[in-house]
């Protein structure tokens, strides 16, 4: 269009010098780009098209002079809005905390009338209008008014107000959006911390119990099988659970069935521990593959098998080794693991 | 592996008879308990057995011992014949031939060595295929047809054939179809060091035992044992396993010729007899494991040598795994 213009990038300056006076902190979110247009008589003039960016006014001028520093507030009042008059642009506030010329007042409940004719209003750091201030809102009001500077801080805030004009001019109003959060978070954090502690404690106890349970699991399962084998009436079930118990015990003691057949397993066991596992296995296999019931001798043998068997095995393994074996979860897992027959073949 | 032996409940029972037979054979054959059991199993399953291994491992001695244990001179005793197979052997040397009777002016039939109870066909793969097939047909049909007449063989006809490994010179390998007639093919292998030492030390004594081998079973007893063995109970899961194994050989990638249905029937018969030999009236998965190789392997044609060692074992092991997982109730 023939108008000389340029794009400028830089940082918006936000004065955070309340902590370190004279320092400007530039944050990533303040990086900004805007347009400058050249007017022959005036030089480069900023044309910031970014919406709601009042900070652009504070950006450095083309000739390099730093932006105006915001004046120090004279009075800052935090409190609850009691009434808003949008016509006269007046508002009444119940102050809870206040700051006048660096003197802090807190725990207040004084009411004061504010003149908002020149006030700029922000909500969520966006410029708002007066009618967005509702009764009951928590607000922070800041005044830079020169005439307030004439007053001196008093010990009590109420005394200060009495001296001040009836309608105190305010320049900036900040509406707090999350009213309850201001005060509650510390409380919640405390309870949360406690809760977390409780939770961790509970978890630790639970974990401890779990570990103990897992450690004892083989023993528990063995006794369950034993109990089942005792309580079963039918000889098939009895034989099945007796075998499960015996097999589980052997497996836990490190003698796994592996790729052997039942009969070979029994023979191996007998040759190692001197038990009568083959005798039992005969009965077991008889039940499994023969089409006839057990005779009396076999029946009594079946019932009398497990206890001496267990005793024999327990006595032939030293105590320490036994405890170790019972706690060995590998053995336990192996008992229930599916083993691929072909894989075994290759081994 | 030691076979499963139930205790002897009755001194005169079939278990005792079988044990007596096995013990009798063990006085001559040392360290071959499993092979002896398999041979007796075949006898009781009414089948025939083929033994293969290098010369001098005791095949012929085993056959002679078995024959000696059940054969005798009396009318009720089994007769034993031995034929040494050579390349120039003719079928009529086995079957018998018609001879002219000068007195009756007629041809009469002279029975060959096949008319006996126990036949030892030594080195069967040295004879020509003509003779081999003549023998194998007889084994299958249990009868001989010469001209117009059909002659029945003995009711108890048990052939023990031995053969040298196919790779040796001067042999006519038996085709797979013929091998199918043998219930089992077993290998001998060499005995372990201790047994071999024992054999050398007692060599005189052992050969004396062979000469003086006692008959422990009569023909009638063997036949009744065969009957008993047929009555052994086979659980349906075992039948299922046999079926799975047989079908598995047909589907396996390393086997080009799988087992036939006849093999399955044979397998079942052998399982029954094997269980019976081990003193049981029911078949176990262990029986399947023990004899599967002996019964099935010679019926299969493998695609390669590696497959030979693995394929059948794979199938059998998978089946054993299935059997062992079956719950008791």
> In angstroms, what separates the terminal alpha carbons of chain A?
86 Å
Structural class, from helix and strand content of chain A?
Answer: alpha+beta
- Helical run tally of chain A: 10
What's the Cα radius of gyration of chain A?
A: 43 Å
Q: pLDDT under 50 segments of chain A (min length 5)?
A: 51-57
| Helix/strand structural class of chain B | alpha/beta
Descriptive report:
Chain A is an alpha+beta fold and 347 residues long. Chain A folds into three domains: 5-58, no CATH class; 75-182, OB fold (Dihydrolipoamide Acetyltransferase, E2P), CATH 2.40.50; 202-346, no CATH class. Helix content of chain A is 40%, strand content 21%. Chain A has helices spanning 157-163, 184-231, 235-252, 262-273, 277-289, 296-303, 306-316, 319-327, 329-336, 341-346, and strands at residues 5-11, 31-39, 43-47, 75-85, 90-100, 103-106, 111-115, 120-123, 126-128, 138-143, 167-169, 172-175. In chain A, strands 4, 5, 6, 7, 8, 9, 10, 11 and 12 form a nine-stranded mixed β-sheet that branches. Chain B has 13 helices and eleven strands. In chain B, the strands form four sheets. Chain B has a five-stranded parallel β-sheet. Chain B has a two-stranded antiparallel ribbon with strand order 3-4. A two-stranded antiparallel sheet of chain B has the order 6-7. In chain B, strand 3 (96-101) and strand 4 form a beta hairpin. With 329 residues, chain B is an alpha/beta fold. Chain B has helices at residues 14-26, 33-44, 59-70, 91-95, 129-141, 176-179, 193-201, 203-211, 219-230, 236-251, 261-277, 285-296, 305-325, and strands at residues 49-52, 80-84, 96-101, 106-111, 118-122, 143-146, 149-152, 158-163, 184-187, 255-257, 301-302. The model of chain B is unreliable at 1-11 (pLDDT under 50). Chains A and B meet through helix 3, helix 4, helix 5 and helix 10 of A and helix 12 and helix 13 of B.
């Amino acid at each position: 269009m023939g108008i000389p213009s340029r794009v400028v990038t830089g940082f918006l300056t936000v004065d955070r010098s309340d902590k370190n006076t004279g320092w400007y902190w530039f944050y990533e979110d303040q990086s900004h780009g805007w347009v400058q247009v050249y007017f022959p008589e005036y030089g480069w003039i900023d044309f910031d098209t970014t919406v709601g960016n009042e900070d652009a006014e504070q950006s450095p001028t083309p000739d390099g002079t730093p932006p105006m520093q915001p004046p120090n507030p004279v009075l800052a009042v935090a409190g609850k809005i009691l009434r808003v008059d949008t016509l006269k642009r007046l508002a009444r506030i119940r102050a809870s905390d206040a700051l006048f010329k660096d003197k802090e007042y807190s725990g207040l409940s004084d009411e004061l009338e504010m003149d908002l004719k020149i006030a700029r209003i922000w909500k969520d750091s966006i410029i708002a209008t007066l009618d967005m201030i509702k009764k009951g809102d928590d607000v922070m009001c800041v005044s830079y008014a020169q005439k307030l500077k004439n007053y001196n801080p008093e010990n009590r805030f109420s005394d200060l107000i009495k001296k001040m004009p009836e309608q105190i001019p305010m320049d900036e109003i900040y509406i707090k959006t999350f009213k309850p959060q201001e005060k509650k978070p510390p409380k919640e954090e405390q309870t949360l911390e406690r809760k977390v502690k409780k939770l961790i404690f509970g978890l630790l106890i639970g974990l401890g119990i779990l570990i103990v349970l897992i450690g004892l699991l083989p023993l528990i399962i063995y006794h369950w099988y034993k109990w089942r084998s005792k309580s079963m009436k039918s000889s098939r079930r009895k034989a099945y659970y007796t075998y499960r118990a015996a097999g589980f015990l052997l497996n836990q003691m490190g003698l796994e069935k592996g790729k052997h057949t039942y009969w070979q397993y029994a023979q191996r066991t007998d040759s190692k521990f001197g038990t009568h596992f083959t005798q039992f296995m005969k009965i077991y296999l008889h039940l499994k593959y023969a089409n006839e019931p057990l005779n009396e001798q076999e029946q009594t043998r079946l019932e009398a098998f497990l206890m001496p068997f267990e005793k024999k095995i327990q006595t032939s393994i030293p105590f320490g080794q036994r405890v170790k074996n019972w706690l060995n979860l590998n053995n336990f897992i192996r008992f229930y693991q599916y083993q691929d027959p072909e894989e075994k073949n290759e081994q | 592996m030691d076979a499963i032996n139930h205790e002897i409940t009755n001194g005169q029972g079939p278990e005792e008879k079988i044990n007596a037979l096995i013990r009798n054979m063990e006085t001559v054959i040392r360290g071959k308990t499993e092979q002896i059991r398999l041979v007796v199993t075949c006898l009781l399953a009414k089948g025939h057995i083929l033994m293969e291994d290098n010369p001098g491992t005791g095949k012929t001695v085993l056959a002679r011992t078995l024959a000696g244990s059940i054969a005798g001179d009396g009318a009720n005793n089994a007769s034993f014949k031995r034929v040494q197979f050579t390349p120039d052997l003719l079928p009529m040397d086995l079957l018998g031939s018609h001879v002219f009777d000068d007195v009756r002016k007629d041809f009469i039939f002279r029975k060959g060595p096949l008319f006996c109870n126990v036949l030892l066909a030594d080195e069967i793969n040295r004879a020509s295929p003509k003779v081999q097939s003549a023998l194998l047909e007889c084994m299958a049909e249990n009868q001989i047809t010469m001209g117009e007449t059909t002659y029945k063989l003995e009711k108890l006809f048990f052939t023990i054939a031995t053969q040298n490994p196919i790779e040796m010179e001067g042999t006519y390998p038996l085709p797979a179809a013929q091998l199918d007639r043998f219930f089992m093919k077993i290998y001998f292998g060499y005995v372990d060091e201790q047994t071999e030492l024992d054999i050398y030390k007692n060599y005189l004594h052992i050969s004396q035992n062979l000469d003086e081998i006692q008959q422990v079973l009569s023909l009638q007893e063997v036949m009744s044992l065969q009957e008993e063995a047929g009555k052994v109970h086979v659980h349906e899961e075992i039948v299922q396993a046999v079926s799975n194994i047989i079908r598995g050989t047909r589907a396996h990638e390393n086997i080009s010729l799988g087992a036939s249905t006849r093999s399955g029937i044979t397998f079942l018969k052998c399982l029954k007899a094997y269980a019976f030999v081990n003193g049981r009236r029911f078949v176990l998965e262990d029986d399947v494991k023990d004899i599967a190789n002996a019964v099935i392997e010679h019926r299969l044609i493998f695609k390669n040598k590696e497959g030979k060692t693995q394929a059948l074992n794979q199938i059998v092991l998978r089946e054993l795994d299935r059997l062992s997982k079956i719950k008791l109730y």
